[in-house]
Amino acid sequence: MPEATHVASGKVREIYELDESHLLLVASDRISTFDVVLPTEIPDKGRVLTGLSSFWFARTGDIVPNHLVAIRADGRSTEARRLAMLPIECVVRGYLAGSGWKDYSATGEVCGHRLPAGLRESDQLPAPIFTPATKAQEGHDENIDRARAAELVGDEILAAAEQLSLALYEHAAAYAAERGILIADTKFELGLDADGVLTLGDEALTPDSSRFWPADEYEPGRGQPSFDKQYVRDYCESLGWDKAPPAPELPEAVVEGTRARYVEAFERLTGIRFADYLADPEVVLR
Ligand code: Q0N
Questions:
Q1: Which of 185, 186, 197, 261, CA to CA, is 20 to 30 A from 3?
Q2: Over the range 102-125, which residues count as b (16 or more CB within 10 Å of their CB) and which as e?
Q3: Average pLDDT value for the chain
Q4: 227 C-alpha to ligand 1 centroid (Å)
């Protein structure tokens, strides 16, 4: 990338500056599990996530404007408008999983939302809830209540972020459920554009920013298998790996099985053959 300045590295993504108002986001094929990036890549994972995210951006522009300007021909790079990102993660939960289940089990609440008694792990919530989190410097994001979120972004922006996040989740969860994928929860990153308009950034509604569950295996009362990463987790567990870095290499069968699950999620949700995306990434925008 000789024409662009590298501005940030995520676990699985690189960000470059194209000009003062545009960024290039490059999704790698790296995969993380139990919060550790593995030494083995999943071919095309970055393209699947870029394609899916772009598909959602094209379909949710009437709910909230987004930062997407163009998908490059490589299928893994997107040009985006630069935003002033909010210092919170906009998490929406439709089901009780992860830290939501943990907090509920301990207190009966999730981020200040009091929930009915007697819910089981993975139960669907009576209605989706907005549970903002702060971006932790290291390790896990920290759930915060409404008052703390309002201190960080102000009441007005928080109310707008909540309403947009819930509307995005409700749209996507209903659409995905018809295609056999439950979106248990998801994280949005919003920012203000040059005109001060609240705008969706980052990647959205991908298996990396959400919990995707196969609907046909859904069974509340236990943790659910991950649509995309279950083979990786099962393999790592089978080794007795202690989840401290370095992570183990993945065998070819686990890589191929996992790649197939990412491609399956893309094809089920978009209704587009992944080969057609590789030939012309902009098919997801039409
Ligand atoms: C941006 N990130 C990565 C951890 C996660 N459109 C944009 N404009 C300005 N900045 C960003 C985007 C995008 N996408 C996104 N970093 C910068 C997500 N990070 C944000 C910080 O917390």
A1: 197
A2: ebbeeeeebbbbebeeebebbbeb
A3: 96
A4: 25
Q: Is the CB of 85 under 6 A from ligand 1?
A: yes
| pTM for the whole structure | 0.97
**Residues in CB range of 23: below 8 A, 6 or more apart:** 7, 15, 16, 17, 79, 80, 81, 82
Q: pLDDT band for 138, please (50, 70, 90 cuts).
A: low
| Amino acid identity for residue 22 in this structure | H
Going by pLDDT thresholds of 50, 70 and 90, the confidence category of residue 136 is: confident
The residue nearest atom 2 of ligand 1, judged by CA position, is 202
* Polymer length in residues for the chain: 286
Residue 191 beta carbon below 6 angstroms from any ligand 1 atom: yes
The answer on pLDDT for 224 being more than 90 is yes
Phi first, then psi: what are they for 192, rounded to 5°?
-100, 135
**CA angle 8–60–162, rounded 5-degree value:** 75
Query: DSSP letter at 272?
Result: S
Distance 73 CA to ligand 1 centre (A): 22
Confidence of residue 236 (pLDDT cuts 50, 70, 90): very high
- Quick check: 153 and 161 in contact, CB under 8 A? yes
